[in-house]
Design goal:
360 residues; alpha/beta; Rossmann fold; 5-stranded mixed sheet; 5-stranded parallel sheet; 15% strand; globular; binds 1,3-dihydroxyacetonephosphate; binds iron/sulfur cluster; transferase; metal-binding; 4Fe-4S; iron-sulfur
Length: 360
Amino acid sequence: MSVRTVPEPYLALDDEVLDSRIRAAKEELGSSTVILGHHYQRDDVIAHADVTGDSFKLARLGAARTDATYIVFCGVHFMAESADILRAPRQTVVLPDLNAGCSMADMAPTEDVLLAGETLDRLGVRTVPVTYMNSTAELKAFCGDRGGAVCTSSNAKAIFEWAFQREPKIFFFPDEHLGRNTGLALGIPLASMVVWDPAKESGGLTREDLERARVILWKGCCSVHTKFQLRHVEERRREDPGVRILVHPEVPYEVVQAADEVGSTEHIIHVLEKAPAGSRWAVGTEYHLVNRLARRHADKKISILSKDFCLCATMYRISPQNLLWALENLLEGNVVNAIRVPENVKRGARVALDRMLQVG
Ligand code: 13P
Ligand code: SF4
Protein backbone atom coordinates (compact mmCIF):
# COMPACT_ATOMS: atom_id res chain seq x y z
CA MET A 1 0.00 0.00 0.00
CA SER A 2 1.23 3.51 -0.71
CA VAL A 3 0.43 7.14 0.03
CA ARG A 4 0.54 9.24 -3.11
CA THR A 5 -1.05 12.21 -4.78
CA VAL A 6 -2.91 12.10 -8.04
CA PRO A 7 -0.53 11.91 -11.06
CA GLU A 8 -0.44 14.67 -13.70
CA PRO A 9 -2.29 12.86 -16.52
CA TYR A 10 -5.46 12.64 -14.38
CA LEU A 11 -5.42 16.41 -13.88
CA ALA A 12 -5.64 17.01 -17.62
CA LEU A 13 -8.80 14.94 -18.15
CA ASP A 14 -11.96 16.83 -19.04
CA ASP A 15 -15.22 16.52 -17.09
CA GLU A 16 -16.95 14.11 -19.46
CA VAL A 17 -13.99 11.75 -19.62
CA LEU A 18 -13.68 11.79 -15.82
CA ASP A 19 -17.36 11.05 -15.41
CA SER A 20 -17.42 8.15 -17.87
CA ARG A 21 -14.18 6.61 -16.56
CA ILE A 22 -15.43 6.77 -12.97
CA ARG A 23 -18.66 5.05 -14.05
CA ALA A 24 -16.72 2.38 -15.93
CA ALA A 25 -14.36 1.75 -12.98
CA LYS A 26 -17.31 1.47 -10.60
CA GLU A 27 -19.05 -0.95 -12.91
CA GLU A 28 -15.97 -3.16 -13.09
CA LEU A 29 -15.31 -3.03 -9.35
CA GLY A 30 -18.94 -4.02 -8.71
CA SER A 31 -19.95 -4.90 -5.17
CA SER A 32 -16.31 -5.12 -4.03
CA THR A 33 -16.32 -1.34 -3.59
CA VAL A 34 -18.74 1.06 -1.93
CA ILE A 35 -18.39 4.83 -2.32
CA LEU A 36 -19.61 6.89 0.64
CA GLY A 37 -20.24 10.62 0.08
CA HIS A 38 -20.79 13.32 2.67
CA HIS A 39 -23.41 15.93 1.77
CA TYR A 40 -20.77 18.70 1.46
CA GLN A 41 -19.03 16.97 -1.45
CA ARG A 42 -19.04 18.77 -4.76
CA ASP A 43 -21.69 17.74 -7.32
CA ASP A 44 -19.27 15.98 -9.67
CA VAL A 45 -18.17 13.73 -6.78
CA ILE A 46 -21.45 13.12 -4.93
CA ALA A 47 -22.95 11.98 -8.26
CA HIS A 48 -20.84 8.80 -7.91
CA ALA A 49 -21.63 7.99 -4.26
CA ASP A 50 -23.51 4.76 -3.51
CA VAL A 51 -24.48 6.08 -0.08
CA THR A 52 -24.80 9.75 0.90
CA GLY A 53 -25.33 11.04 4.41
CA ASP A 54 -24.39 13.11 7.41
CA SER A 55 -21.56 11.92 9.67
CA PHE A 56 -23.84 9.68 11.72
CA LYS A 57 -25.58 8.04 8.77
CA LEU A 58 -22.28 7.40 6.99
CA ALA A 59 -20.75 5.83 10.13
CA ARG A 60 -23.78 3.57 10.57
CA LEU A 61 -24.33 2.62 6.93
CA GLY A 62 -20.61 2.33 6.17
CA ALA A 63 -20.26 -0.19 9.01
CA ALA A 64 -23.23 -2.13 7.65
CA ARG A 65 -21.63 -2.62 4.19
CA THR A 66 -19.58 -5.64 5.21
CA ASP A 67 -20.00 -7.09 1.69
CA ALA A 68 -17.60 -4.51 0.22
CA THR A 69 -13.84 -5.06 0.39
CA TYR A 70 -13.07 -1.38 -0.24
CA ILE A 71 -14.81 1.61 1.33
CA VAL A 72 -13.90 4.71 -0.68
CA PHE A 73 -14.72 7.68 1.52
CA CYS A 74 -15.57 10.95 -0.21
CA GLY A 75 -15.47 13.14 2.86
CA VAL A 76 -12.82 14.28 5.32
CA HIS A 77 -10.13 12.52 7.32
CA PHE A 78 -11.98 12.07 10.64
CA MET A 79 -14.91 10.44 8.79
CA ALA A 80 -12.60 7.98 7.01
CA GLU A 81 -10.86 7.21 10.31
CA SER A 82 -14.22 6.44 11.91
CA ALA A 83 -15.05 4.12 9.01
CA ASP A 84 -11.70 2.38 9.54
CA ILE A 85 -12.43 1.92 13.25
CA LEU A 86 -15.86 0.43 12.53
CA ARG A 87 -14.96 -1.67 9.46
CA ALA A 88 -14.91 -5.46 9.29
CA PRO A 89 -11.41 -7.07 9.43
CA ARG A 90 -11.07 -7.81 5.68
CA GLN A 91 -12.11 -4.30 4.59
CA THR A 92 -9.93 -1.31 3.65
CA VAL A 93 -10.91 2.36 3.80
CA VAL A 94 -9.53 4.73 1.15
CA LEU A 95 -9.56 8.54 1.31
CA PRO A 96 -8.85 9.81 -2.24
CA ASP A 97 -6.88 12.82 -0.90
CA LEU A 98 -5.15 12.46 2.48
CA ASN A 99 -5.03 16.25 2.79
CA ALA A 100 -8.80 16.40 3.14
CA GLY A 101 -8.76 17.28 6.84
CA CYS A 102 -11.01 19.43 9.03
CA SER A 103 -9.85 22.73 10.50
CA MET A 104 -12.10 22.23 13.51
CA ALA A 105 -10.60 18.81 14.30
CA ASP A 106 -7.15 20.45 14.03
CA MET A 107 -8.11 22.87 16.81
CA ALA A 108 -8.02 20.01 19.33
CA PRO A 109 -4.54 18.47 19.16
CA THR A 110 -4.56 15.20 21.11
CA GLU A 111 -1.82 16.23 23.56
CA ASP A 112 -3.67 19.47 24.47
CA VAL A 113 -6.88 17.62 25.27
CA LEU A 114 -5.03 14.94 27.26
CA LEU A 115 -3.30 17.69 29.23
CA ALA A 116 -6.66 19.34 29.94
CA GLY A 117 -8.00 15.94 31.10
CA GLU A 118 -5.03 15.56 33.47
CA THR A 119 -5.58 19.07 34.84
CA LEU A 120 -9.26 18.35 35.49
CA ASP A 121 -8.26 15.12 37.29
CA ARG A 122 -5.68 16.96 39.38
CA LEU A 123 -8.28 19.54 40.40
CA GLY A 124 -10.73 16.75 41.27
CA VAL A 125 -13.27 17.84 38.62
CA ARG A 126 -15.17 14.71 37.53
CA THR A 127 -16.55 14.77 33.98
CA VAL A 128 -17.74 12.47 31.21
CA PRO A 129 -15.63 13.28 28.12
CA VAL A 130 -17.66 13.58 24.93
CA THR A 131 -16.00 14.22 21.59
CA TYR A 132 -17.69 15.45 18.45
CA MET A 133 -17.14 13.07 15.53
CA ASN A 134 -14.97 15.85 14.03
CA SER A 135 -11.87 14.84 16.02
CA THR A 136 -8.84 12.55 15.83
CA ALA A 137 -9.12 8.82 16.50
CA GLU A 138 -6.87 9.37 19.56
CA LEU A 139 -9.47 11.67 21.13
CA LYS A 140 -12.19 9.12 20.45
CA ALA A 141 -9.98 6.56 22.25
CA PHE A 142 -9.51 8.99 25.16
CA CYS A 143 -13.33 9.14 25.50
CA GLY A 144 -13.74 5.38 25.13
CA ASP A 145 -11.11 4.68 27.80
CA ARG A 146 -12.63 7.18 30.24
CA GLY A 147 -16.31 6.19 30.12
CA GLY A 148 -17.21 8.76 27.47
CA ALA A 149 -18.60 8.66 23.94
CA VAL A 150 -18.60 10.23 20.49
CA CYS A 151 -21.50 12.32 19.20
CA THR A 152 -22.47 13.84 15.87
CA SER A 153 -24.66 16.82 15.10
CA SER A 154 -27.67 14.52 14.82
CA ASN A 155 -27.39 12.83 18.23
CA ALA A 156 -25.54 15.34 20.44
CA LYS A 157 -28.62 15.91 22.61
CA ALA A 158 -29.17 12.19 23.23
CA ILE A 159 -25.46 11.68 24.01
CA PHE A 160 -25.43 14.63 26.45
CA GLU A 161 -28.46 13.12 28.21
CA TRP A 162 -26.67 9.77 28.34
CA ALA A 163 -23.55 11.43 29.78
CA PHE A 164 -25.49 13.39 32.41
CA GLN A 165 -26.87 10.09 33.72
CA ARG A 166 -23.24 9.19 34.58
CA GLU A 167 -21.71 12.41 35.94
CA PRO A 168 -23.03 15.91 36.61
CA LYS A 169 -20.48 17.48 34.20
CA ILE A 170 -19.49 16.97 30.55
CA PHE A 171 -16.11 17.84 29.04
CA PHE A 172 -16.93 18.45 25.36
CA PHE A 173 -14.55 19.01 22.42
CA PRO A 174 -13.69 20.33 19.90
CA ASP A 175 -16.75 22.43 18.84
CA GLU A 176 -17.63 25.10 21.34
CA HIS A 177 -20.77 26.02 19.37
CA LEU A 178 -22.29 22.56 18.98
CA GLY A 179 -21.63 22.01 22.70
CA ARG A 180 -23.27 25.28 23.73
CA ASN A 181 -26.24 24.81 21.40
CA THR A 182 -26.78 21.30 22.75
CA GLY A 183 -26.51 22.46 26.37
CA LEU A 184 -29.05 25.24 25.72
CA ALA A 185 -31.42 22.75 24.05
CA LEU A 186 -31.29 20.75 27.30
CA GLY A 187 -32.10 23.84 29.37
CA ILE A 188 -28.58 24.42 30.73
CA PRO A 189 -28.06 28.16 31.26
CA LEU A 190 -25.21 29.92 29.46
CA ALA A 191 -23.62 30.74 32.82
CA SER A 192 -23.23 27.01 33.51
CA MET A 193 -21.14 26.47 30.39
CA VAL A 194 -17.50 27.57 30.45
CA VAL A 195 -14.89 27.62 27.70
CA TRP A 196 -11.54 25.85 28.13
CA ASP A 197 -8.88 27.80 26.25
CA PRO A 198 -5.92 25.46 25.61
CA ALA A 199 -3.59 28.45 25.16
CA LYS A 200 -4.08 29.42 28.84
CA GLU A 201 -2.99 27.86 32.12
CA SER A 202 -5.82 25.58 33.40
CA GLY A 203 -7.81 26.57 30.32
CA GLY A 204 -8.08 30.13 31.68
CA LEU A 205 -10.61 28.89 34.26
CA THR A 206 -10.66 29.12 38.03
CA ARG A 207 -11.60 26.32 40.39
CA GLU A 208 -14.92 28.16 41.01
CA ASP A 209 -15.60 28.35 37.24
CA LEU A 210 -15.07 24.60 36.98
CA GLU A 211 -17.15 23.84 40.07
CA ARG A 212 -20.20 25.74 38.82
CA ALA A 213 -19.90 24.42 35.23
CA ARG A 214 -22.22 21.72 33.89
CA VAL A 215 -20.46 21.72 30.52
CA ILE A 216 -16.78 22.49 29.88
CA LEU A 217 -16.49 23.48 26.21
CA TRP A 218 -13.28 23.30 24.21
CA LYS A 219 -12.36 26.55 22.43
CA GLY A 220 -12.77 25.28 18.87
CA CYS A 221 -15.07 26.02 15.95
CA CYS A 222 -15.85 25.45 12.29
CA SER A 223 -14.41 28.16 10.06
CA VAL A 224 -17.30 27.68 7.63
CA HIS A 225 -20.25 27.74 10.03
CA THR A 226 -18.98 30.60 12.18
CA LYS A 227 -19.32 32.82 9.10
CA PHE A 228 -23.07 32.78 9.72
CA GLN A 229 -23.91 35.65 12.06
CA LEU A 230 -26.99 37.07 13.76
CA ARG A 231 -26.89 40.08 11.42
CA HIS A 232 -27.46 37.71 8.46
CA VAL A 233 -30.65 36.40 10.07
CA GLU A 234 -31.82 39.96 10.77
CA GLU A 235 -31.04 41.09 7.20
CA ARG A 236 -32.87 38.15 5.66
CA ARG A 237 -35.92 38.66 7.86
CA ARG A 238 -35.95 42.38 7.00
CA GLU A 239 -35.79 41.57 3.27
CA ASP A 240 -38.50 38.91 3.55
CA PRO A 241 -40.51 38.59 6.80
CA GLY A 242 -41.88 35.24 5.58
CA VAL A 243 -38.50 33.58 5.12
CA ARG A 244 -37.69 30.51 7.27
CA ILE A 245 -34.19 30.22 8.70
CA LEU A 246 -32.67 26.73 8.85
CA VAL A 247 -29.17 26.23 10.29
CA HIS A 248 -26.59 23.62 11.23
CA PRO A 249 -25.76 23.42 14.99
CA GLU A 250 -22.11 24.39 14.39
CA VAL A 251 -23.27 28.01 13.96
CA PRO A 252 -22.97 30.39 16.97
CA TYR A 253 -25.80 30.15 19.50
CA GLU A 254 -27.23 33.63 18.75
CA VAL A 255 -27.89 32.41 15.21
CA VAL A 256 -29.52 29.18 16.41
CA GLN A 257 -31.69 31.13 18.87
CA ALA A 258 -32.88 33.43 16.08
CA ALA A 259 -33.45 30.58 13.56
CA ASP A 260 -36.65 28.60 12.95
CA GLU A 261 -35.01 25.18 12.67
CA VAL A 262 -31.66 23.61 13.49
CA GLY A 263 -30.21 20.22 12.62
CA SER A 264 -27.59 18.06 10.93
CA THR A 265 -27.07 18.07 7.17
CA GLU A 266 -29.42 15.08 6.88
CA HIS A 267 -32.06 16.94 8.90
CA ILE A 268 -31.68 20.03 6.72
CA ILE A 269 -32.31 17.89 3.62
CA HIS A 270 -35.36 16.31 5.25
CA VAL A 271 -36.88 19.66 6.30
CA LEU A 272 -36.53 21.09 2.80
CA GLU A 273 -37.96 17.94 1.20
CA LYS A 274 -41.07 18.23 3.38
CA ALA A 275 -41.42 22.02 3.00
CA PRO A 276 -44.44 23.19 0.96
CA ALA A 277 -44.02 24.49 -2.60
CA GLY A 278 -43.58 28.26 -2.61
CA SER A 279 -41.97 28.36 0.85
CA ARG A 280 -38.81 30.46 1.23
CA TRP A 281 -35.69 29.36 3.10
CA ALA A 282 -32.34 30.86 4.08
CA VAL A 283 -30.01 28.01 5.01
CA GLY A 284 -26.92 28.29 7.23
CA THR A 285 -24.64 25.50 6.08
CA GLU A 286 -22.04 24.64 3.44
CA TYR A 287 -22.40 26.12 -0.04
CA HIS A 288 -22.46 22.90 -2.09
CA LEU A 289 -25.28 21.35 -0.12
CA VAL A 290 -27.40 24.51 -0.18
CA ASN A 291 -26.93 24.97 -3.94
CA ARG A 292 -27.81 21.35 -4.62
CA LEU A 293 -30.97 21.63 -2.53
CA ALA A 294 -31.95 24.87 -4.29
CA ARG A 295 -31.68 23.09 -7.65
CA ARG A 296 -33.45 19.95 -6.42
CA HIS A 297 -36.42 21.93 -5.06
CA ALA A 298 -36.95 24.54 -7.74
CA ASP A 299 -40.57 24.95 -6.53
CA LYS A 300 -39.22 26.44 -3.26
CA LYS A 301 -36.98 29.46 -2.85
CA ILE A 302 -33.81 28.20 -1.16
CA SER A 303 -30.66 30.27 -0.70
CA ILE A 304 -27.62 30.40 1.56
CA LEU A 305 -28.02 32.50 4.72
CA SER A 306 -24.86 34.54 4.21
CA LYS A 307 -23.54 35.99 0.99
CA ASP A 308 -19.97 35.22 2.15
CA PHE A 309 -18.46 32.23 0.39
CA CYS A 310 -19.21 29.46 2.92
CA LEU A 311 -17.33 26.60 1.32
CA CYS A 312 -15.51 23.81 3.13
CA ALA A 313 -12.13 23.89 1.38
CA THR A 314 -11.04 20.53 2.78
CA MET A 315 -14.20 18.69 1.67
CA TYR A 316 -13.55 20.26 -1.75
CA ARG A 317 -10.17 18.53 -1.96
CA ILE A 318 -11.92 15.31 -2.98
CA SER A 319 -12.21 15.70 -6.75
CA PRO A 320 -13.29 13.52 -9.68
CA GLN A 321 -9.58 13.32 -10.55
CA ASN A 322 -8.45 11.76 -7.28
CA LEU A 323 -11.60 9.63 -7.01
CA LEU A 324 -10.93 8.17 -10.48
CA TRP A 325 -7.26 7.61 -9.65
CA ALA A 326 -8.18 5.76 -6.43
CA LEU A 327 -10.73 3.57 -8.25
CA GLU A 328 -8.48 2.75 -11.21
CA ASN A 329 -5.74 1.75 -8.77
CA LEU A 330 -8.15 -0.64 -7.04
CA LEU A 331 -8.81 -2.20 -10.44
CA GLU A 332 -5.06 -2.83 -10.73
CA GLY A 333 -4.99 -4.33 -7.23
CA ASN A 334 -3.24 -1.24 -5.72
CA VAL A 335 -4.62 0.50 -2.68
CA VAL A 336 -3.64 4.17 -2.55
CA ASN A 337 -4.29 6.42 0.45
CA ALA A 338 -5.57 3.71 2.77
CA ILE A 339 -6.58 4.93 6.23
CA ARG A 340 -5.08 2.82 8.99
CA VAL A 341 -5.82 3.73 12.61
CA PRO A 342 -3.28 1.94 14.88
CA GLU A 343 -4.78 -1.05 16.73
CA ASN A 344 -4.01 0.36 20.20
CA VAL A 345 -5.98 3.54 19.35
CA LYS A 346 -8.73 1.64 17.59
CA ARG A 347 -9.78 -0.31 20.69
CA GLY A 348 -10.79 2.69 22.82
CA ALA A 349 -12.10 4.65 19.85
CA ARG A 350 -14.38 1.76 18.92
CA VAL A 351 -15.78 1.67 22.46
CA ALA A 352 -16.67 5.39 22.20
CA LEU A 353 -18.17 5.00 18.71
CA ASP A 354 -20.14 1.90 19.72
CA ARG A 355 -21.60 3.80 22.69
CA MET A 356 -22.75 6.47 20.26
CA LEU A 357 -24.29 3.93 17.88
CA GLN A 358 -26.11 2.26 20.78
CA VAL A 359 -27.56 5.54 22.05
CA GLY A 360 -28.57 6.37 18.46
P1 13P B 1 -23.13 16.48 9.70
O1 13P B 1 -22.88 15.33 10.60
O2 13P B 1 -24.34 17.27 10.08
O3 13P B 1 -23.17 16.05 8.27
O4 13P B 1 -21.94 17.52 9.87
C1 13P B 1 -20.62 17.20 9.60
C2 13P B 1 -19.80 18.39 9.47
O5 13P B 1 -18.59 18.34 9.39
C3 13P B 1 -20.46 19.67 9.47
O6 13P B 1 -19.52 20.66 9.33
FE1 SF4 C 1 -14.73 20.58 9.40
FE2 SF4 C 1 -16.29 22.77 9.16
FE3 SF4 C 1 -15.50 21.43 6.98
FE4 SF4 C 1 -17.31 20.35 8.64
S1 SF4 C 1 -17.57 22.20 7.39
S2 SF4 C 1 -15.56 19.32 7.75
S3 SF4 C 1 -16.53 21.10 10.63
S4 SF4 C 1 -14.17 22.55 8.45
